[in-house]
Amino acid sequence: MSFPYQIKTKEQYIAAWEKSVADPEGFWADVASSFLWRKRWDNVLQWNFTEPNVKWFSGGKLNITENCLDRHLGSLGSKPALIWEPNDPEEHHRLITYSDLHHKVVQFANVLKNNGVKKGDRVCIYMGMVPELAIAVLATARIGAIHSVIFGGFSAQSIADRLQDAQANFVITCDGAYRGNKEIPLKSVIDDALVQCRFVTKVIVLTRTHTPVSMIKGRDVWWEDEIKKVETMGNPDCPAEEMDAEDPLFILYTSGSTGKPKGVVHTCGGYMVYTTYSFVNVFQYNPGDIHFCTADIGWITGHSYILYGPLSAGATSLIFEGVPTWPDAGRFWDIVDKYKVNILYTAPTAIRSLMGYGLGPVKDHDLSSLKVLGSVGEPINEEAWHWYDENIGKGRCPIVDTWWQTENGGILISNLAGVTPAKPSYATLPLPGVQPVLVDEQGNEITGKDVSGNLCIKFPWPSILRTTYGDHERCRTNYFATYPGLYFTGDGCYRDADGNYRITGRVDDVLNVSGHRIGTAEVENAINMHTGVVESAVVGYPHDIKGQGIYAYIVYDSTHQEEQNLTRQDIAQTVTRIIGAIARPDKIQFVNSLPKTRSGKIMRRILRKIAEGETDSIGDTSTLLDPSVVEEIKNGKI
Ligand code: WTA
């Protein structure tokens, strides 16, 4: 494949960005022309940010899986589309060529059809990182159904909430999943979730761990049996469903400031164009490169840069089932060495955790195949950046610090590897098509250099979210109402003298723990489910490895008072049950009351300062109903 839109020099970057602003429609029409469309679009772009209503390439007809699979069969059919590295390094890896993947996707698409899945139906996918997860996602897209992948670490309750919100009648899962030395009983978690979700009519279960599972007659079927049925039908073809560019492709739930996760909706055409465009340009992908993105497919990074972006570009994408520290902390480097990985895309939290093991696990591996390193999910601190640069890239691999969000679909601000300059801890410059602005609290644009503000984007790019599933008003109020006419990211940002952007972190009540987004309200709701908890307030605090840790202040009913440490563990367990282990508080402090204003609002600013250990800069407490609670909380700090 060649990419006529690939930017090779800094001058070309500047020219592309300028064209994308002066003539966005012409710019994106050119990019979109190198994809496979059944019918060309009628309009490149129609938009307003008030409703909001954004349509890219409307009237255009396509299927994203034809772009990711069918169009490569001629030239790349025998080339690996996916490399799968199992959790256990002793188990055999798998190479899946483009023609194998096409065959398997078609086969499983027929399984879905045989089980009654139709265009527009929502299919929830809750699996470990096995190739069949990719197959399930692509097969769903092939028949025009809408996938909603749920990360394997979420609890039964979280799954039930998402299934209900999406009204998903179909679930695809595994008996279990391997992660490091753990075995996670996925099907059993699904069974718990489905107690509340009687509307789920079919569950397709892949065998992975041979964990005993209960199979409910009429509802649950084995993946392998269903495949056999398709084989006995003679493996019929499954032509891709013709989709409108603006038909939904998937829903992905993400946390916001409220207690309830939002179902971010992405559509087929714009998402395909932007993920591919950004993949090729940010990582400077060259045909033949092996790309290893360490994210889970359950997050947006996995959707866009393990699956759709790389596959549409005809790349070889590596899927790793395990964790970076098992069987030892050299696992990533082992994989890089074994498959001669060229592009490695990971998260600062992984880098920081591996730094802690020193250079021992790095040194016996040949990392000379690496050409580009990437970072995503949270700000990368300078120390981690330099460690990554010196010890992994050996000073010769550009590092791309890619800033973006679930709602963005693809990378919005990043240097382009080796083309535009990197600057440690800066995402640097916007991609072509992206127009960032900084605003003050009143929404006035802050122009000039060396300034900070809230980061907004003032013009749509092709993979901007279209809505939040089932509740468009929520999409409007969350992203488009704070600053009318702008998409508000929720992030604070600094722009330096050269126009480089540095993301400084969330300015709303969303935490970023190990690169995972978690709403404080969600954690509070879960804590409050524990008997004995009267009320709680959750804030973030700086954590050496996770970036942010979760600090919970809890008012506990004294009649329930038991041994404090046991109660702490019980509460943490409750959060694991309700949300999942990723939301488990790191620190729990019991308090007699929370600092509240006279109108009853919790002053989180104060709690944040205490959790951060900045007790000297708490500021004005005179508006508090009872300022003395601050002293008490300070004294009890963990
Ligand atoms: C944060 C992940 C600094 C940011 C793709 C954003 C980052 C949130 C970076 C989105 C980065 C992501 N530098 N911060 N390079 N990348 N973030 O939806 O706060 O899981 O709003 O998407 O992660 O997280 P999400």
Indicate the percent of residues in helices.
25-40%
What is the highest CATH level, the class of the largest domain? Alpha Beta
Helix count, DSSP H or I runs of 4 or more residues: 20
Contiguous runs where pLDDT drops below 50 for at least 5 residues: none
Quick one: biggest sheet?
A: 7 strands, mixed
What strand line-up does the widest sheet have?
A: 5-4-17-16-18-19-20
The CATH superfamily title of the largest domain? ANL, N-terminal domain
CATH topology of the largest domain: Rossmann fold
Number of strands: 30
Question: Shape, please?
Answer: globular
End-to-end separation in angstroms reads 56 Å
Which secondary-structure class do the elements indicate?
A: alpha/beta
Rg, nearest Å: 24 Å
Which small-molecule ligands are present, each listed once? 5'-O-[(S)-ethoxy(hydroxy)phosphoryl]adenosine
- Beta fraction: 15-25%
CATH architecture of the largest domain: 3-Layer(aba) Sandwich
The domain tally reads 2
Mean pLDDT metric: 96
Can you lay out the helices and strands and say which pair or pack?
Layout: H1 10-22, H2 24-32, E1 43-48, E2 53-58, E3 61-62, H3 64-68, H4 73-76, E4 80-85, E5 94-97, H5 98-114, E6 122-126, H6 131-142, E7 146-149, H7 156-166, E8 170-174, E9 177-179, E10 182-184, H8 186-194, E11 202-206, E12 220-222, H9 223-232, E13 243-244, E14 248-254, E15 262-267, H10 268-282, E16 290-293, H11 300-312, E17 316-320, H12 331-339, E18 343-346, H13 348-355, H14 360-363, E19 372-376, H15 382-392, E20 399-402, E21 436-439, E22 451-457, E23 467-468, H16 472-480, E24 487-495, E25 501-506, E26 510-513, E27 516-519, H17 520-528, E28 533-543, E29 547-556, H18 564-578, E30 587-591, H19 604-611, H20 628-635
Parallel strand pairs: 4-17, 6-7, 6-8, 8-11, 11-12, 16-17, 16-18, 18-19, 19-20, 29-30
Antiparallel strand pairs: 1-2, 3-13, 4-5, 9-10, 14-15, 15-23, 21-22, 22-24, 24-25, 26-27, 28-29
5'-O-[(S)-ethoxy(hydroxy)phosphoryl]adenosine binds next to helix 11, strand 20, strand 24 and strand 25.
